[in-house]
Amino acid sequence: MKGVTEANIYDVSPEFRIIFFDVHSSDRLKIPPTFKKKLEGVFTSEYLLESRGKTWPVTLKEVHDNLLYLDSGWPEFVKDSALVSGDFLVFSYIGNSKFHVGIWDKKGCRKKFPDAVANPRTKFCNTFQISLRPAYLRYVIIPREVGKLLNKHRKCTLKVANSWWVVNCTGHECDRPRFGAGLIQFYKDNKVKVGDIVTFQLISEHDNVFTVDFSRP
User: Name one GO cellular component term (predicted).
Assistant: First the structure.
């Protein structure tokens, strides 16, 4: 797959998403059964995980109940990535037996690593994600790391593919900023349900524009 960068990889590659729990996933990781179909014709037992410019060899193993697991090599990736319960992982298949792995922390921000501290581009968080609950149907609190990047406009724009929705954005000084009026219509138009994972990425600080992505656990 040519011309794929980290900036657009999540738009063009087959992917699956998981919330990491060390009790269940430290030794091996179950691949969602629905993703197995996407590997038809390219299935092999040896893969590479790519993250932060590094790669880890792993084995993809099929067990008796017809489930796939990342097996040998996965514990090393867990250790090197300092994964903890609650981390959110996105696996994007980019071809040539390789997955790109994006990692977010419990707050929904890109996870920071010691070897990336020197890079000023990693010193801010422009992405957060929520697991949609009934309380979030009318408002969503924006993490402070993201909120401090916003312009002081009272509106934010949510972008999904080529469609746009404008929602109120309140509380920029003493209060934490939040999305407000307009969210219900946004969820309705995109058929978002309680329990879905919603990821917001700020792509324009000047105009308060977020791209939004949805997935179901």
Answer: nucleus
